[in-house]
Amino acid sequence: MTPTSYRFRGAAAALFIVPLGLAACSSHPASAPSATSSATSASSSATAAPATGGTAAPAACPTTPVNVVVSVDQWGDIASELAGKCGNVKTILASSSVDPHDYEPSPSDGAAFTGAQLVVVNGADYDPWASKLAATSAPNAPVVDAGKVTNTAEGGNPHLWYNPSAVTAVADAVTAALTKLEPKASDYFTTQRASFTTAMKPYDDLIAKIKAGASGKSYAATETVFDYQAQALGLVNKTPAGYMTASANETDPSPADIAAFTQALSNRQIDVLIYNTQTEGSIPQQLRDAATKAGVPVVDVTETVPPGKTSFEGWQDGQLTALAKALGVAV
Ligand SMILES: [Zn+2]
What start and end residues bound the annotated signal peptide (predicted)? Predict the structure, then answer.
């Protein structure tokens, strides 16, 4: 699903807070047809309800689409799926060549939040620039902050899109926020949320299968990106402690930390090495080489949605399938 970029309708008009001007520039239907439109949405939901196969043609949006600005594409795709035709979703960091951890916003990013009616950020100190820009450029827009939704402390592992229960909680929060903004599209958003659950079924099934077949097996990781997912799968983290601390603090591990990691791989004390392909530097590569040499399977994961992947679940399903294979779980 390609995020639809939107133009900022009436950006100039928005500067003049004149009620008449707003009514004129907004493309909401006049209040008169609202009874008809709610009747239409009620009947369309009745016909849309039995569409459990996930192949039904998406309904038209019964109201004006909500302008949604999302900080990073890990959540941008999810927001697009949930908003459907009732949202114009713009993702700021949609290129996997950019490391979100080190991202410095440009002046145009501030402008990108102007006109946002809903803002979605990861939070947990992952994209602090986004919350700051949103507060300045779209102060009235509600913010769905994955860190707050999941009560993740600042400084905690920020890779919340790898936490299956966080994905569910954030999806629910986005749907609730969209519905509050456009109550006339309530049925539409409910249907979109249900379609997302359907789309996530293979992901849920893969998690259940890996958990059943490989729980208690061990992994080590070049980076903390996959830790929530591994925990949900019941895998035991055998990343040497010194390396893990350095990685979490974004500092270089000591030679002793690297030696301990290489040794654990050589001794095959680890069932699978999780390798973040978006991490730069020679150390992860050195660990990968040690794993390959020892015959420890390596599973590639990425921080952000890789090019060529068209949906969050498609991205995740591919990685989980590779992991299942590495752990000898039939899926
Ligand atoms: Zn990361």
Answer: 1-23
